[in-house]
Amino acid sequence: MIASLSGFSLLPSYTVIGLTLGGVYALAATGLVLIYRVSGVLNFAHGAVAMFSTFVAYQISVVAGVPSIIGLAAAVATGAALGFAIEFLTIRPLTGRPPLTKVAVTIAWLLVLQTAAGLIWGSTGYHRPVQLVGSNGFTVPLTNVVVGYDQLTIFLVAVGLSLGTSALLRWTSLGVQMRAVADDPQAARLWGIDVDRVSAASWMIGSGMAAVAGVLITPLLNFDTYSLTVLVIDAFTAALIGRLTNLPLTVVGAILLGLVQYYPKAFFSQAGLSELSTFALAIITLAVVFRPGLATSRGRA
Amino acid sequence: MSGAARSRVGLAVVVAAVALLPALESDFQRGLDSDAVIIALLVLSVVVLTGFVGQISFCQYSFAAIGAFTVGALMDGHGWSFWLALPVGVAAAVLTGVLVGIPALRLSGLLLAVLTIAVALFTDRFLLVTGTWDGFSGGAVPWHPERPSLLGAPLTGSYAYYLFVLAILCAAILVVWNLRTGKTGRVLRAVRDSELAAATVGLDVTAWKLAAFGLSAGLAGLAGALLAVRIGSVSPGSYDFLHSVQLTALATVMGVSTIASAPAAAIGTVFGPELLSGISVSSTWFPLLIGGTLIVQLVLVPEGAVVRTRNDIARLSRLLSARRGRDPAVAGASR
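^ inputs. structure came back:
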């Protein structure tokens, strides 16, 4: 690893990439937190759901050449359907079982989706990304930093959807029901809330968001089945910064993660720096944010 | 013959059969058998961690990689003997396991599970990448550790190596079995069932968890080292995150609470892909089979295949002895 000071000149444009990446992480993490808060399950298959849905978009838009927006819609539909299937077929029957069992079921889904995608689309090799917006852009006034319209779109859509979810939870009837279920499912049931329906809704919305995140991130990384499945650790790291509960803080954490992953690349050419940064940030977060007994004190996890 | 003696004879017969049958097979098949035995060792490492203290790990193959790459680097890079490199590799894996377990001092199990994903990705996408530490990962040219000799007998033949790994598996099972049935086993189960209650009766919960992490990582490291020598080459792709996920799923299908799932998993990995190719399906479908089985099973048979089968057999034999007009409780006591 050889440091080069000329990296400083790269920082402004790396900020743009870092913010874009962070926006996508925010979206994925928001879906993860939504599912965890409402149904109490830490979804280890979140990245796999994103991956599988994204490959549906790939099949439709890149392979078959249908406009990207239709591919995106199909991906969201796939994500929501997968979320519903996971909740309805495997989480709901496990009500009252230990958290370990529910986690194991999400691991099983990860394995199934990963293997299935590998069999259908090939586990390695180059896949052309799903490009929603053209990659030409504009120069930020008074600087020489170029921002791509695709980067701007990704950031605005991702952060917009994440903050939109916060608004949904705060101001809509479904959101109030979700928060009620999150706080105390039994009391919510007594108040006449259909807990199963609310839980299924959280899985569908959360997984749909994972699908959008997956499609948006394809131009930003080496797009294959593995790299999208492990998106789950980036989502987890951001969610941990938000203590698995606080959505706005999760968005901030996600953007921080995107920047932390990208800045070292301006100075070092070593492969795997993003993983090193994620690892370090996850450890620091766990050490600083979590005290014994916190966060999983809900008991349903 | 008493029940205990009978089951001991039965076990001896099974072990002898497992040791002798591959003598009839081809070299290729024996290689797969050795792989299966090594996978049994890895499943055993999951049983120690998940079954004994209730901790899920996504980085068992990272521990295996520590063992494999240490042995590879010491043997191929520094010309060490296998018998010196192996204990160093296992020790390195134990140390890594304890380091990963240290956050257990303050984190709940699920958050620790999240951390193990970060560890797995750190290992296979940073530590083992060419350019990070080529003295450990081998860089562009993978390590080629050679098979050793044992007491003058070379282990280069596929049957000799199979017997060698089988003996190690049996020894490892014995060690874990003794831990399980002794005082340690009771302590670990207390920790798994309720950390709070275990702490209340004066058990040092975190120390026991760390010990379980160390033992589990040591077993995985041992398996990794044996796999490296069995293949004769060490490359990062064989130790990635998805392998760990598949291993955890496989162990859970068999049932993480029992040691018997280790040999059961070995049999599954030998015959599963063969079963698939029997119905002309590629063996790349095998993980799908495991995952699918796991989903169905967790919903229908959450205790695991081995435990369920054992309970079913027990119920059946009770039923049969009751039908013969004997009170099962009395029949059991008269043995």
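Chain A touches chain B through 52 residues (CB under 8 Å). The CA atoms of residues 90 and 145 of chain A lie 48 Å apart.
thumbs up if we can close this ticket
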